[in-house]
Amino acid sequence: MQNKGSWPRILGLLLVLAFIITACGQTTTTTDGATGGTATSQTSTTTEQSPAASPAGSAAASPAGSAAASPAAGGGTTIKVGSKNFTEQFLLGEMYKQLLEANGFTVEENFGLASEAVAHEALKNGEIDLYPEYTSTGLQAILKLPAQKDRQAIFNTVKSEYEKQFQITWLDPSPFENNQALAMTKARADELGIKTYSDLSQKASELILGGPAEFFEREDGVKGLQGAYGGFQFKDNKQLDPSLRYGALTNGEIDVVVAFSTDGEIGGLDLALLEDDKQFYPPYQVAPVIRQDTLSANPQIAEILNALAPKLADAKTMANLNYAVDGPDKKEPADVAKQFLTEQGLLK
User: Fold this and answer.
1) Residue 336: which of 151, 82, 90 has the closest Cα?
2) Rounded Cα gap, residues 203 and 208, in angstroms
3) What gap in Å lies between CA 184 and CA 92, rounded to an integer?
4) Could you give the CA distance from residue 11 to residue 18 in angstroms, rounded to a whole number?
5) Is residue 21 part of a domain?
6) Residue closest to 333 by CA, chosen among 5, 94, 28, 24
7) Residues 148 and 70 in one domain
8) Predicted confidence (pLDDT) per residue in 65-94, tens digit
């Protein structure tokens, strides 16, 4: 009977003891948190993870237009950027380089490659990872396919064929075209009422044409224009080094000059660019061409460089950039590229 009576007291003591132990445990946990124990340790772990997580999240969330805002995005990976050997290519190569560097990539430059054939081989062989190329150059000079007139069809063809044949792809093309062109001084063009190639074809016998030697022999030169438009029988043809063409035009030695639609001198010298009204020349849009293995390893490159494409909206924009280098100011391509990218909000 006494044993039975002692059980309630024992159970009561056990309940009191359990309550005391529980209370002590709660006090210990709270004290550890307040003094930097377990809770501080967890906070420290979170803080250590934040620097690594933050740039990655920032790069994913930021548009390529704010390239400079996420310098860790490239993680220091080296990208080899090339260009061909004329002003526009130097400018484009610099723009690619600076955008990539602003996004954390290390860039090795290989500018001034002699031709599209040399640049293409360097790209295939891995000597460079990317460079700027023109769609119709890729179509005709690299793929050896006939000219096309439709911009989208040309781009679709070069993109798919490059991927199949070379494991190289094309990023977004810029809207402007750098096409073969013919130009005159505005005064001479106005005097003769010449605005288009059709107009020129009828007046050619009164005029002197100046350009590189190959223009007078190639099918995409005088011979092709004669077939497409008729006429184009000039009073004289003068073979001129590219560096002498515009001087010969402005001093009256020639009346018509063989040009490219984004030559800086067209805007800088306020020349009349004649309209190819029968679209004899195919469109030449520029875009980054890049090794697919490089892009697969660094997919953010597409977003970074594609942000540039719409900023190069027309031939006049590119011509003005070219003239900043080739004109009287003789600025460095790197400086012109940086100023343009900053003005367009692509660099800070």
Assistant:
1) 90
2) 10
3) 27
4) 11
5) no
6) 94
7) yes
8) 445 546 667 889 999 999 999 999 999 999
Amino acid at 151: R
312 in a structural domain: yes
Residues 248 and 292 grouped into a single domain: no
One-letter amino acid of 179: N
The reply to whether 239 and 172 lie within a common domain is no
pTM, entire model: 0.75
**Which of 201, 192, 213, 172 shows the shortest CA–CA distance to 272?**
192
Q: CA of 197: how far to CAs of 180, 191, 220, 232, in Å?
A: 12, 16, 14, 9
Domains of the chain: total: 2
Q: Could you give the count of Cα atoms lying within 13 Å of 193 in the half-sphere of its Cβ?
A: 3
| Residue 110 CB coordination number (10 Å) | 16
State the residue range of the domain holding 126. 64-177+284-343
Q: Are residues 189 and 170 in the same domain?
A: no
Mean pLDDT of 119-138: 97
137 and 195 in a single domain? The answer is no
Q: Are residues 184 and 173 in the same domain?
A: no
